[in-house]
Amino acid sequence: MAREDDETVYCNIQMPLASGKQLLQLVTELRESGSHPNLDTVFTRMQFELTMTIDIVEHPPTWGAGEPTER
User: pTM of the entire structure?
Assistant: First the structure.
């Protein structure tokens, strides 16, 4: 449970791959512009999350994709 003085905001958004790529480009441009220095850490985290999930969609992991074993 969150503390009463915790002002952390969470945002979990799902979108199609094309929208994710477009959002990543926008966030990258905003971060590189330096026009919002107080959001640099947020932009960095967004870039990481978007890059990671885009990679997973484009290159699904192969672990667990084998034939099921008989019991």
Answer: 0.78
Torsion over CA of 48, 50, 40 and 38, rounded to 10 degrees? Answer: -130
Q: Please tell me the distance from the alpha carbon of residue 48 to that of residue 16, in angstroms, as a whole number.
A: 17
Residue partners of 40: CB distance under 8 A and separation at least 6: 31
How far is CA 58 from each of CA 13, 15, 24, 61, rounded to the nearest angstrom? 18, 14, 15, 10
> Rounded distance, CA 26 to CA 7, Å?
26
The model's pLDDT over 2-39, given as tens digits with 9 standing for 90+, comes to 566 789 999 999 999 999 999 999 999 999 999 999 99
Question: How far is residue 33 CA from its own chain's centroid?
Answer: 20
